[in-house]
Specification:
The structure is a homodimer of 355-residue chains. The first copy, chain A, has a 7-stranded parallel beta sheet with strand order 4-3-2-1-5-6-7, sandwiched between helices. In chain A, strands 11-10-8-9-12 form a 5-stranded mixed beta sheet. In chain A, strand 2, helix 2 and strand 3 form a beta-alpha-beta unit. Helix content of chain A is 42%, strand content 15%. The first copy, chain A, has 2 domains: 128 residues, NAD(P)-binding Rossmann-like Domain (Rossmann fold, 3-Layer(aba) Sandwich); 122 residues, no CATH class. Chain A is α/β, with parallel strands linked by helices and 355 residues long. Chain A is globular. Chain A contains 15 helices and 12 strands. Chains A and B meet through strand 10, strand 11, helix 11 and strand 12 of A and strand 10, strand 11, helix 11 and strand 12 of B.
């Protein structure tokens, strides 16, 4: 298989699954963590490697190394591998998803932005989501009449932080997620709840449903609930590790132990909280967005620019959501009619804020 | 359909479902609550009524009333109805279950004792359990490799009662269940945790599995969990009302709203506790019993006698479990080879304690 983003947390977990089930790795695609990449090359012996920057090529211990987006797309096209794990971060992940679909490969999709910005134009027939929440929903689906679906949120780095101090938080504090460690972008998205907004949009595309909501479950053990017409709900409970969704996305099914089961007696209690609009201003527009999924590309572009500015100390934490909300207002008219329109709108929104 | 035990809590809920889905009631079988029975007769217009005692016949507003076990069995045999809801309490429920199977009728089974004492000899092909826990497990079953199953317990009337005072509790206190109101027998069984032991034995017969356990979930909103080989669990969440299991047991499926959905934000938190062997001495023999389901008839007979003695102020609360544990020891050798043996053993155990 082809692993896009092999040195990030999803990539590393994907390789854990590959090790466990002795799966072949044909292509590794990574960013700038060449040290880890070299270890992965030694263990998994891919036939090809693609990295971000030309200047790092000489550090990579492999005879077939290239760099940049075009090389990723070519690697997908040329590889005999039938599965692409797309764990790239951001809008950058869209073209590889489209290429993999074009090449009729199976896609295990961890890149949220592909569906968020272009769900309308993505053929889902060979796509499996890698996300605890969507995995949970899929796991729970049965032949019963579904009323709605609920996913859970951890609440992110500032779940219990004094509201009035939110405007002055440091980058370091924002990157300190209570329940697990992930990449910087998604950790910030988690703190602003934009990540959960993305997941709801993905769920809308994946499950063709708009009655969707999210609640905070502080231990991150329940990942999703399906609410049936009869009044019952079912919940998926698992320790927070991406290995399980990855195993299912790659293997289709899995009857071996991948995670330690949750011991509810050790857990003791579970706590549920509302997603408060004051703490998470993006939640203000949840319904607007779920009723107009075309806004995904706008929200994503504005958010990518804003998060990057925050991580470069150019704006404060609360400005991230402010920019997103403002962009949704300003570009509320967008109506993409093709995948080309998506790239156009993305560029337009970015150039408006990227100054 | 035929409703055995129409004036008890399951019976009343069954008639609620019958009202909601406009189901025909052919036979009503009740005990001594003739006032409620007469209301049910007026509304559902059964063709036949059976009650417990001859002396109550003249109080029943119906032209076709008989009494006693033989009349129940005859009613099952003669009725054209295809479904029997068996909500009788105790060993008394066994013969009607057997008769319904003999007549090839569908059985919605709320009588726990049928499976507990004679699971080995019961053909389950037309049987659906009416019990939140077994319904939950059934609801969750999918085509995945199951590792184990967990059901939940409320903890009963004395969950938080000082341990050292348990020996002196009154009948009134014992009948004061924290989460809902049920018949006397099952409320005491719930306080001793014998009810949960019964449910585990039923689950063993229903799902052909021995890796079974129970935990206390104090709000009684999660009813059962299925634990899969991959390390995930799924949970069934619903407000504690028997109407949902009843609707499924009778209708096979149900895509209409029967219960109000659970609002986890209002619930706030869920709490899990171990079933403590000091508080619930019967839990001491859980594994012994699950490994030898033949003991069901012994446990049930001893427990029926003991609960009845407790409710008649002849023994203390802790003696109920003591008698059950003693009987399991004394009659540990039983090996029923036929349904006749079950009736023999039941009689033997009863006559030993019934003095």
């Amino acid at each position: 298989m082809i692993v896009l983003g092999s040195t990030g947390s999803i990539g590393v977990n994907t390789l854990n699954i590959a090790r466990k089930f002795a799966l072949n790795i044909d292509v590794l695609v990574a960013g700038t963590n060449i040290e880890l990449l070299n270890k992965q090359i030694e263990e998994f012996k891919p036939s090809k490697v693609v990295i971000s920057r030309k200047e790092d090529i000489h550090k990579v211990n492999h005879t077939n190394v290239s760099f940049g987006e075009d090389s990723i797309l070519r690697a997908i096209e040329e590889s005999p591998a039938k599965t692409v794990v797309n764990a790239l971060v951001g809008f950058l992940g869209l073209r590889p998803t489209l290429k993999a679909i074009e090449c009729d490969k199976k896609i295990a999709l961890a890149n949220k932005e592909s569906l968020v910005v272009a769900g309308k134009f993505i053929d889902q027939r060979k796509l499996s989501p890698i996300d605890s929440e969507h995995f949970a929903l899929w796991y729970l689906l049965q032949d019963k009449k579904i009323s709605s679906m609920t996913i859970t949120a951890s609440g992110g780095s500032f779940r219990d932080y004094p509201l009035e101090k939110l405007k002055d938080v440091s980058i370091k504090e924002a990157l300190n997620h209570p329940n697990w460690s992930m990449g910087n972008k998604i950790t910030i998205d988690s703190a602003t709840m934009t990540n959960k907004m993305f997941e709801l949009m993905e769920a809308a595309w994946l499950f063709d449903i708009r009655k969707l909501d999210a609640i905070i479950e502080t231990r991150s053990l329940i990942h999703g609930l399906v609410n049936f017409e009869d009044g019952s709900s079912t919940a998926h409970i698992a320790n927070a590790s991406m290995q399980l969704p990855i195993a299912y996305a790659i293997l289709g099914k899995c009857d071996e132990q991948v995670l330690q089961p949750v011991d509810l007696l050790k857990v003791g209690s579970l706590e549920f909280k509302q997603i408060d609009k004051e703490r998470y201003p993006i939640w203000e527009v949840k319904d607007t967005i779920l009723n107009n999924l075309d806004l995904g590309v706008v929200l994503n572009a504005a958010n990518e620019v804003a998060v990057s500015k925050f991580l470069n100390s150019k704006i404060g934490f609360l400005d991230v959501s402010k920019i997103s909300l403002e962009a949704l207002e300003k570009f509320s008219y967008v109506k993409p009619n093709s995948i080309d329109d998506i790239f156009e709108i993305d560029k337009e929104v970015r150039s408006y804020y990227d100054s």
